């Protein structure tokens, strides 16, 4: 069986460029709640320097990526104040095949976001 992996990246659709400096936390969803797996920050290309999970660490189950977009939006001058329309953005998804590649990107602007299963 091929070794699976989970990757992500963040694109700022309002500015038309990668979103650098976004903190991303990966959780595994369990019956007891969320279990933190790892945390990283996007690089200048809006990507993580390594997969969020790879190989035997990626198992069948439900996961959640939490993107700390609010700090990025403030620092880029697109949002201000203590309360933002978008701040922490959770994306919950399932991994039915631990041998597959799951790419879960985030496309953000100050007032909207979207995601998809990429390649």
Automatic annotation (TrEMBL):
Q: Which CDD domains match?
A: TLP_HIUase (cd05822)
Q: Which domain of life is it from?
A: Bacteria
Task: Report domain Transthyretin/hydroxyisourate hydrolase positions.
Answer: 6-118
Keyword Membrane tagged: no
Q: Which GO terms describe its biological process?
A: purine nucleobase metabolic process
Q: What class of enzyme is it?
A: hydrolase
Q: Which reaction does it catalyse?
A: 5-hydroxyisourate + H2O = 5-hydroxy-2-oxo-4-ureido-2,5-dihydro-1H-imidazole-5-carboxylate + H(+)
Q: What is its EC number?
A: 3.5.2.17
Record bears the keyword Thylakoid = no
GO MF terms listed in the record are: hydroxyisourate hydrolase activity
An example of a Pfam family matching this protein is Transthyretin
Q: Which UniProt keywords apply?
A: Hydrolase, Purine metabolism
| UniProt subunit comment | Homotetramer.
General function of this protein: Catalyzes the hydrolysis of 5-hydroxyisourate (HIU) to 2-oxo-4-hydroxy-4-carboxy-5-ureidoimidazoline (OHCU).
Family from the record: Belongs to the transthyretin family. 5-hydroxyisourate hydrolase subfamily.
Name of the protein: 5-hydroxyisourate hydrolase
Could you tell me which species this protein originates from? Pseudorhodobacter antarcticus
